[in-house]
Amino acid sequence: MSTANPLIRAWQQAVLLAEKTPENRNRYVDFLRAASIIVVICGHWLVVAPYLNGEELLLSDILSISPWTQWLTWILQVMPIFFIVGGFSNATSWRSAQRRDENYSIWLNARLRRLITPVLPVLVVWSIIGLVANAFHIDKTILKAASAFALLPAWFLVVYIVVVAFVPLTYRAWEKRQLGSFWALAAGAILIDIVAFAGGWRWVGWFNYVFIWLAVHQLGFAWQAKKINSARKSLPWAVGGFIALIALVSFGPYPISMVSVQGEEISNTLPPNLTMLALGIFQGGLLLSLERPIRKWLDNLKVWTTTVLINGMIMTLFLWHVTVLILVAGLALALGGLGLRIAPGTSTWWLTRPIWILTLGAILLLVTPLFVRYERIRSTKDAVSPPLWRSLTGGLFFCVGLAILTLKGITAENWLGIRFVELSLPFIGAAIARFGFFSVKRK
Known about the structure:
Elements (H helix, E strand, L loop, with lengths): L5 H14 L7 H21 E6 L2 E6 H4 L7 H4 L2 H21 L4 H13 L2 H17 L4 H11 L3 H12 L1 H11 L1 H20 L9 H17 L6 H21 L22 H15 L2 H7 L3 H11 L2 H21 L12 H5 L1 H23 L12 H21 L11 H14 L10
Antiparallel strand pairs: 1-2
Helix pairs in contact: 1-16, 2-5, 2-16, 2-17, 5-12, 5-14, 6-9, 6-20, 8-17, 8-20, 9-12, 9-20, 10-11, 11-12, 12-14, 13-14, 17-19, 20-21
């Protein structure tokens, strides 16, 4: 079999890395990260149901068409798992940096480089799509919705970057207060929801982007410190989180769905509220109770190699899977609506979902080798480490620009037809902080 195939080469490289894995590495962390990304991708491909009704293309939402599917989001919404895994990884990385006497600036720049660099090619591609669409006078309403949806995965990065920047403070709080640091953040989240819903000041709820996700991130610290690393320790958390979740959706103002649903006044994720905290406690407790048996399973070389392979391209898969969905739907539309005339929610639609997901998966795997190189850019030994103000300023520029784009899309009422300033901000931030292909070396 020829090694010219990039997927074969990727597998062979993953085998080599898998065989060199240190015995003391917690493979379950990598497994949860890989499994969660697969769930996110398949969930998005399932929830969004493009439908050609006559000559009108509708971006349908299966959650609103078939309300019973909203219960599935208790499984498919795995963002809390990413923050728990991130907490474990950041605790390990930060402790290691402290042992090496590595300062905060070097540590932060290295973490941000891996988060920010893979996003820039996505923005380049969508900028080009916007410019071409404007030149050919394509309906901006469609492009706005498509681009905002394509960049939707990046909202996680905006919040996660903020969480990463707080690690020295949150880890110090963990060292001093242990789980008390989690409960303090949880208490803040409860207070914010009371003010937002009972007090009627809904805008206050946006502060829970910080309190909710920092609290869930602290659970990752607890896992790394072996406070909730067994079934005996973690199952009570799962039970408590599940009971809280049932109570919140039964007696509170919160909807059942753990993702936004078209037409619903309240979203559990935009901004996050107490249901996300309860979901994180439930999912985290349940999954951590399975750590020991799954870690034994991960000793199997093929299973572990698959995990290593997915983790080696995880950002690329995450950032490009929605763009692939949009491009495939556009191609199907150009081919006369191939596969798009099946009404969402019908038995025929459900029976064809495996074909739909497998088709998108195959195309995503073809696209991934084109962009995975940007995920693997690393600072070299002779690279200049920028001062802290550059890393923080660069991260701020990046987050502001990306947050606006994920909410409003790329279209604008100007001669270019795109939000040029907002699209420029992430690149300006990367240049300021010398991330990725803006990094420089000592002469």
